[in-house]
Design brief:
Length: about 600
């Protein structure tokens, strides 16, 4: 009896609700038509993401994020260098691909077809966003609304229908926040996609493992084999999450819960699926670390964590950090954020009353939000791009919450539900549904208007600055024999992606800047607005820093002027600006094949 009841619970948790063909009339047909219309609008707005792919991150937006200057190049640098230099690794420089190889590998495959191109890299991340929208829809269809009233409504009340998946997809597609950040070739979009895919795999693996003993032996064996395949796929996805962005570990609790709940909250199916998934995931990650990282790139692997290991949280600042972490969520859209927060609080209250077993998806989304918010609070570096990882589950919660209230209001106000005391409750539910629906309509319309504005008013200040810098370097490089075209800049990797110039980073790297200068001898330096004191201190012993040109770019008052300097070696005759045109060449020091690069220890001698 217990096994039968738990398997039934698992089936209810993972099956799409159905109702007889005879009842597919009236409200059900209207709901289906509305869903199709919402999805068509979402598809149209998604298509707009492919327009003006080379344009700047929107200027004068609410989001001042450093990623628009650096991250596209940094986290795709391995793929960029592979095609520009013949290898991906530059010893002593910033090499994040040692720890985060998934995104550069995807770009590597793409660049083999398209060549190195910022438009191609951004097209890839837009495709990832499209797959994210598809996964959102499939996941919410597989695990529908959490109120049983939806399944129990009579004919004409919209029974068995849910608009939550289409609403969530539409809100994400029209979101200007998503438009701005899913068009950057950064790590957050693929992390979100991998997380959603892992939730789908966990739900399928758990459900397949929880078959009733009433089923035949052959059916049970086939189901277990199917469950094992899904569990193995889940393990691979968990490893990919960590190798895409290591903060994915904060999303694991949501996936564990999905596996536990979809298996009917039973220990044996959960343990079987989790041992297989955990084993596959550990094998993939350990194989990568043991065979690739540890023998050659351990220094770069560790450096990524040390460079990002800071936290500003102290007992004195904990309150303000938690406050900022929560309320900076308005970056996803103020109205949408408050609706999502209300839906999260309401869902948590309902789930607690039902011992967290009303709907596994809602619990998983809440764990997703709380897990990643915990990372943000600990890290205390509240860049807007980090909230992209929260925008997806919050939007899904807002859609689920509204649809649940709408369905409950319709069920409570139906003729079969009228008895003493229900009228006031029904009116309250209708009021809440009306307010929530109006807020979501406002959020969608306002977001669509802002997104259309960004599409219609593209700017190319950074791209123009990078291209003009490329022309200056090419024109000036021939003024002195052996003057290197290698560029030193914190935005150098982005400029490499846009123009093809070779570059190294002036800020991050396993070698000190002075050592990197001595080894690679760059010929050019690009900085934003001014030269920082520590950079000048490293440059002064070796170079005369000659200002060549400046290029307005972006709208950040601290970083809105990209200045190009020529680096003349001390001891050589001083040159003015100008000189014969000379073609670019790859520095001899960089002309090495994979595995031939000297180690940081060798370079220091």
């Amino acid at each position: 009896m217990l096994l039968d009841s738990t398997s039934t619970l698992a089936e209810q948790a993972t099956a799409v609700p159905s109702f007889p063909p005879a009842k597919r009339t009236g409200a059900a047909r209207v709901a289906k038509a509305v869903e199709v219309a919402l999805l068509l609008i979402a598809a149209a707005f998604f298509a707009l993401h492919f327009v003006h792919l080379r344009a700047d991150f929107p200027n004068h937006s609410p989001w001042m994020d450093w990623a628009k200057y650096t991250d596209e190049g940094w986290y795709g640098d391995a793929a960029i260098r592979h095609y520009q230099l013949g290898h991906w690794y530059v010893p002593g420089d910033f090499n994040p691909a040692a720890a985060l190889p998934v995104w550069p590998l995807l770009e590597l495959a793409l660049f083999r077809v398209t060549g190195v191109s910022v438009a191609a890299a951004r097209a890839l991340t837009v495709v990832v966003f499209g797959l994210t929208l598809a996964c959102v829809y499939l996941l919410m269809r597989r695990l529908p609304g959490m109120w049983r009233a939806q399944r129990d409504q009579p004919e004409g009340a919209g029974a068995g229908t849910t608009l939550a998946p289409a609403i969530a997809v539409l809100l994400l597609a029209v979101s200007p926040f998503c438009y701005a950040f899913t068009r950057l070739a950064i790590l957050e979009p693929p992390l979100i996609l991998a997380t959603l895919a892992a939730l789908l795999a966990a739900s399928a693996a758990g459900a397949a493992q929880a078959n009733s003993p009433a089923h035949g032996e052959g059916v049970r064996k086939r189901a277990k084999r199917r469950g094992d395949l899904w569990a193995a796929a889940l393990g691979l996805l968990l490893a990919l999450m960590l190798l895409t962005k290591t903060t994915g570990v904060f999303l694991f609790p949501a996936i564990f819960w999905m596996l536990w709940a979809s298996g009917g909250y039973r220990v044996k199916p959960f343990v079987r699926a989790w041992l297989l998934a955990g084993g596959v995931g550990a094998a993939v990650w350990s194989g990568y670390y043991g065979l690739f990282v540890r023998p050659r790139y351990l220094l770069d692997y560790r450096y990524l964590f040390s460079a990002n290991g800071y936290t500003g949280v102290t007992p004195a600042t904990l309150g303000s950090v938690l406050h900022d972490t929560l309320f900076d969520g308005v970056w996803i859209g103020a109205t949408l954020f408050w609706v999502a927060l209300a839906a999260a609080v309401g869902s948590l209250a309902v789930l607690c009353a039902r011992r967290l077993r009303a709907n596994p998806l809602v619990v998983a989304l809440l764990l997703w939000v709380m897990g990643y918010a915990a990372f943000l609070a600990y890290h205390d570096n509240l860049q807007p791009r980090y909230y992209l990882v929260l925008a997806v589950p919050l939007t899904m919660l807002a859609a689920i919450g509204f649809d649940a209230v709408r369905a409950a209001a319709m069920g409570a106000s139906s003729p079969g539900k009228r008895f003493r005391g229900v009228g006031a409750g029904a009116r309250l539910l209708q009021l809440v549904a009306a307010i929530g629906g109006g807020a979501l309509v406002f959020a969608g319309v306002n977001g669509a208007r802002q997104t259309i504005y960004y599409v219609a008013h593209p700017e190319y200040t950074f791209l123009s600055a990078a291209n003009r810098m490329h022309d200056e370097v090419e024109r000036e490089a021939g003024g002195a024999a052996g003057h290197s075209p290698l560029l030193l800049s914190i935005s150098g990797a982005d400029i490499s992606l846009m123009t093809g110039l070779s570059s190294i980073c002036d800020d991050f790297g396993t070698m000190t800047l002075s050592d990197r200068l001595a080894v690679y001898k760059p010929g050019w330096f690009a900085s934003w607005n001014y030269v920082e004191d520590d950079k000048m201190e490293a440059l002064a012993p070796m170079y005369r820093v000659v200002r060549v040109a400046s290029f307005p770019a972006f709208d950040d008052p601290d970083r809105n002027l990209l200045i190009l300097y020529r680096l003349d070696l001390v001891g050589l005759p001083a040159r003015g600006v100008g000189g014969r045109r000379r073609s670019l060449s790859v520095p001899r020091r960089l002309r090495t094949k994979l595995g031939e690069q000297p180690t940081a220890k060798q370079l220091s001698h």
